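The following record pairs a protein chain with its ligand, adenosine-5'-diphosphate.
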Amino acid sequence: MLENKNSQRTTLEQLGEFGLIKHLTQHFELTQASSLKGVGDDAAVLDFKDQKTIVSTDLLVEGVHFDLSYMPLKHLGYKAVMVNLSDIYAMNATATQITVSLAVSNRFPLEALEEFYAGVAQACKMYQVDLVGGDTTSSTKGMLISVTAIGVANEDDLVYRSGAKANDLLVVTGDLGGAYLGLQVLEREKEVFKVNPNSQPDLDPYSYIIERQLKPEARKDIVELLDKLEVKPTAMIDISDGLSSEILHLCEQSETGCNLFEDKIPLDPTVISTAEEFKMDSTTIALSGGEDYELLFTIDQADFPKIKANPNLTVIGHMTSKEEGPHLITRANTKIALTAQGWSSFNK
Ligand code: ADP
Ligand code: MG
């Protein structure tokens, strides 16, 4: 989009800041009863009656969190929203509104921002959240995106990182490692393209993991499923940095240890085959890869019958006492200390 010389390029100066905001936000409608005032005044006005309000923000920086040479702007808009909604769902809450703030250099034409907002709009529609504000400014270099997500929950339904107890089951949604390996494939093709711009890569075998990287979905469905199954997790977190670091957060804040079983970690066949191709260990990738945006939670053992038949949910271990500490039980049945980098074979 940025490099396409044939596409229309309207400079941002032509519109001015207010014209730009109006242009980008004009087709967003308010759908939530709690959205009293959205874009257009000094601030948005929300009304959650007697429920609790949940707020989460993320900042994404070009060159650090995303690379526009393979990330289409529409996908980036979608993903920027997903990253934030995932945090709301990790509280067992319902996401209701977002704000989107942007800083862009003059290298970005209006059409590029339209693409970005098309992704934001699709995310809003799919996940039933309202865009209620933001800020727009210029940057000297590159693009910065900050999304704030707002949600709602009954106080009794909220799930923190701190509620896990020894003997609770450790459960993960979906499968892990795909987003990281998708990124490795995209990085490899970028290098090939630099050497030979006419190369036509066959990315079909990698479509699942590339989609995991470029178009992740936040697990709204899991919050709804848990409600339907009448299971309230004792603790929950979303997997943005990799399984091991998120498990360590749960252990630390809940003051527990855990036993994670390597052979239980859910992996898609594409993850296994691509890891082999890259000569990487698929367990290490699942533990340290990140960006999977799945949910990791603990439940009381008494709730196991309610979740055991569900293909979206995998029991990967259980919590132990704090004194026992966090461990990985390998396929070879050795017990090793779990570290933030994945796992260290030097301990024990
Ligand atoms: P202020 O000068 O008070 O910061 P702005 O002119 O920046 O106000 O914003 C005017 C309105 O447009 C506000 O409702 C603001 O939340 C909204 N807005 C500004 N930028 C964006 C954006 N990038 N996306 C969505 N809404 C925006
Ligand atoms: Mg402003």
